[in-house]
Amino acid sequence: MISPQIAIVLVLLFLAVVMFATERIPIDVVTILLVLAMILTGTLTVGEAFAGFGNDIVITIAGLFILTGGLVKTGVIDIVGRRLHTIAGGSEFRLTTMIMFTAAACASVMKNTTTTAMFVPVVLGIAERAKIKPSKLLMPLAFGAILGGTCTLIGTSTNLAVSGAMTRYGLPPFSMFELTKVGIAIVGVGMLYMLLVGLRLLPSRGGEESFTESYRMREYMSEVIVLGDSPLVGRTLAEANLSDTLDLTVVGIIRGVQGRIAPRAGERILADDLLLVQGRIEDILRVKHEAGIEIKADFKLSDRDLEAEGVELFEVMLLRGSSLVGRTLKGMKFRDRYNLTVLAINRHGVQLLSKMSTVGLRFGDVLLVQGKMQGIENLVTDGQALLLEDVSERRGRAGKRHWALIAFGVFLLLSLSKYYTGFDVPLAVAVLVGALVLLATGAVRTQEMYGMIEWRLLVLIAGMISFGTAMEKTGADKYLAGIITRSFGDYGGTAVLAGFFLLTVVLTQPMSNQAAALVVLPVAVKTAIALGLNPRTFAVTVTYAASCSFLTPLEPACVLIYTPGHYRFIDFVKIGSILTIAVFAIVMLLVPIFWPLK
């Protein structure tokens, strides 16, 4: 008979998994609700529920965000990216090899999402120069970064989260390079697969069309003539407020000998002006008499029509954690705030061109933006979006690059001090010393330090550590382990190990990697103990499995390349499924060798 406390924990687990998968509520909010539910149901005391937030793993991950942020801010990664095309030339095979290898190497010491975000604009620039479709290079980039994250303790926050949680079960945490021996094999097999098989399966899309063609903007753009008796004459664009009153957006003005004029808010509308407006043709027809405008016939739209006086077209992608996510363009007054006009939104291959001001923005949305580089730089500098072009020549605090490398080197030396001095420096201390070096030298500014930290992830990890405490305290982990032991124990330890790998892979598709690993870990460890097997073997297997998010574009690194690469959902299923099987084979073959089952 299941006890009431176990039932409560299992119900909370089920609800958390469902909410993590649907993401209707942000994962950090779900985590906080989970912690509060454990307190209100009496499952945990207040001290036990919030103990996870004081875990040193939270400090370690926060410090790592700052360290990797230093490499980003100083342009270290950009330099690496700029060398790729020089070394590989225009060969698709060599470029894929170099991109995957570089991404894997960087992701072994940086978060795979950070690595992918840094290299997306670089790889797009390489694809353009080498005349290669972006879809041929971007998926290898994301997969290389994901594979590289399996190589070290700091390769992904998942590795760190599992390492921190292991101590609850009497297991020592992972050392810096404990995962490297199998991680390198995973990277090697993954690269061989992508180079020998994956390249043939990758689609050939993108890289040819202009912005206006790729976004299919013609049906939403018209050129109208302002008649002499129009009520718009003499009013500024801000006073006319066409966006709210007529549901039209002015994106360009052509005026006699002056030619194209940038659509500034203070620009006055004159009689006979040609206004390039964005909106549905039926809306223009509905208001043309009221507004005193006439549609110009035989209008053909090109990128040049949208650019004038330093105003250009840019593509920017919204990043995870951006304050723009979940808000509307109208609600945040985007045009006034950044002096930029959003012409279209590409959401996973679907172009949104009408009623955009009321559309809630999402992580991974690509915005086609009209404006000046200064406005774009403000948007990018704020950490709100990623500019999808190779701008590495203009970015980075070149004079501070050596300090960013020194800070990372100090961190690595301190974290490995046990091996050459016999004195073990805690990882949290090592990472904080490295972060202090960045701050002291100005490689990272104090005011931007906290913006580098992904707080949602820290809340998730802290909350799930506390939930692990609840499973252990109530015996829910032993209860689930008992079910698995009775159901699969007769098939042998290897079969049970394989089952936990597959379970983790399935959960990582809809859930975050960290959440999936921390949900499965306590059950896997208790199952191993019940079967008389090595619990560390199971913990390692769950860790590797949590990184195998190749099957869908829901993994953050894959979200970042989904739209720029013009991919479809089925592309990830087709290419990622074989890669997942290959990683599964390597893990099941090598993990029991390096971490024996008994």
Notes on the protein architecture:
This protein is an alpha+beta fold and 598 residues long. Among the domains are: 218-300, Alpha-Beta Plaits, CATH 3.30.70.1450; 312-394, Regulator of K+ conductance, C-terminal domain (Alpha-Beta Plaits, 2-Layer Sandwich), CATH 3.30.70.1450. It has helices at residues 4-22, 27-40, 46-49, 56-73, 76-88, 92-107, 112-130, 135-148, 157-166, 180-201, 211-214, 237-240, 242-245, 281-291, 334-338, 373-381, 401-415, 417-420, 427-441, 446-449, 455-474, 476-488, 493-508, 513-530, 535-546, 556-562, 569-594; strands at 221-226, 249-255, 259-261, 274-278, 293-295, 312-318, 341-347, 350-352, 366-371, 385-387. The strands form 2 sheets. It has a 5-stranded antiparallel β-sheet, with helices on one face. Strands 8-7-9-6-10 form a 5-stranded antiparallel β-sheet, covered by helices on one side. Helix 7 (112-130) runs antiparallel to helix 8 (135-148), helix 8 packs antiparallel against helix 26 and helix 24 (513-530) packs antiparallel against helix 25 (535-546).
Short description:
The protein is α+β, with helices and mostly antiparallel strands.
Write the layout of secondary structure elements.
Blueprint: H1 4-22, H2 27-40, H3 46-49, H4 56-73, H5 76-88, H6 92-107, H7 112-130, H8 135-148, H9 157-166, H10 180-201, H11 211-214, E1 221-226, H12 237-240, H13 242-245, E2 249-255, E3 259-261, E4 274-278, H14 281-291, E5 293-295, E6 312-318, H15 334-338, E7 341-347, E8 350-352, E9 366-371, H16 373-381, E10 385-387, H17 401-415, H18 417-420, H19 427-441, H20 446-449, H21 455-474, H22 476-488, H23 493-508, H24 513-530, H25 535-546, H26 556-562, H27 569-594
Antiparallel strand pairs: 1-4, 1-5, 2-3, 2-4, 6-9, 6-10, 7-8, 7-9
Helix pairs in contact: 1-2, 2-21, 4-9, 4-17, 4-19, 4-21, 5-6, 5-7, 6-7, 6-8, 6-10, 7-8, 7-26, 8-10, 8-26, 9-24, 9-25, 10-27, 17-19, 21-24, 22-24, 23-24, 23-25, 24-25, 25-27
